[in-house]
Amino acid sequence: MIYALILAGGKGTRLYPLSRSNHPKQFLKTINNKSFLRNTVERIKPLIPVENIYIVTNEEYFDQIKEELPEISEDNIFVEPANKETATCIGLSAVKLLKKDSEAVMVVLPSDHYIEGEIQFIQTLRQGIEIASTRRALITIGITPTRAETGYGYIQVGDRYKGDIPTFKVNRFTEKPNLEVAKDFILSGDYLWNSGMFIWKASEFLREASKYIPKLNERLMKIYQSIGQENETEVIREQYELIEGISVDYGIMQRTRKAYVIKAEFVWDDIGSFNSLKRFLKEDDNNFVSDNVYLDQSENCAIFGKEKLIIGLGIKDLVIVDGGDVLLIMDKSKDQDIKHLFNNIKDSKDYREYS
């Protein structure tokens, strides 16, 4: 059977101060007055029934998810006791689904993507499901690059595989290259962005985990044995304390020989930074602005207002974000540094309350 797994445990630190520790970006309503999480669930419903949609998240977001998605059963919310990177949260979900269904196929979706062309999106997933089921392959969805982006992973495509939508064997993954390497990738014409969307059989994912991240797999197998037992929650907590987290890209996808990539024919954006989010603002004389913003003699700025009026006079190359009790003013070139800034604020006794 086919199951959707939506990853909703991240803190969205690169959208701080809009995204906060107690209200991260998956709950933000910044595009169509629906949260990113709600949009992700509605996008997948035409393919996968609600009873087969699962969410994996942190303990602290459990109640928010129940409130945001009342149609999702509590049993379909997998809770992690700690954040130990994507290979771990996907692995926890894989063993739970495998316990339920030995033939489970997982469609793994981040909760913070923007997608246009939902018919093409569903068609892409259908093709990925067919390949994952018959080839026992690990499928990812690739995006045609539009710029030399250093915040994404890149996939070099190999030989063409069958399918109505262009599908390729993966030659190699490269995670977040520097700017010069990213420019070379764009010029070469045979690289796609790694969207972070995956399709595979739960059993195949765990088989590859046993090859490439055996210590993590050992912990997951102990969890697998406890599922449905009285001590399940206790075992999960104990094993998580022993796990050294690693991303699924570094842990498996860069190493496996079973990776295939389907080239997306729909419009995609990863709303993981203000540079991406600004594309949903109004364009105003070479600036991007929300409501309640007035600029004069200013250029190349992105201004995210809230309740108060923001006025800019003679400013250039700035990102300004009104987060209510926090106002961020940043050189636009520092977009990838916000996560580090957030961690410093969170670790400071003077400013921790603003994290």
Automatic annotation (TrEMBL):
Gene Ontology terms for molecular function: GTP binding; isomerase activity; mannose-1-phosphate guanylyltransferase (GTP) activity
InterPro entries: GMPP_N, ManC/GMP-like_b-helix, Mannose-6P_isomerase_type2, NTP_transferase_dom, Nucleotide-diphossugar_trans
Domain MannoseP isomerase/GMP-like beta-helix: 293-341
Residues annotated as domain Nucleotidyl transferase: 4-281
Biological processes annotated in GO: GDP-mannose biosynthetic process
EC code: 2.7.7.13
Enzyme class, first EC level, given as a word: transferase
Name of the protein in question: mannose-1-phosphate guanylyltransferase
Source organism (scientific name): Clostridium frigidicarnis
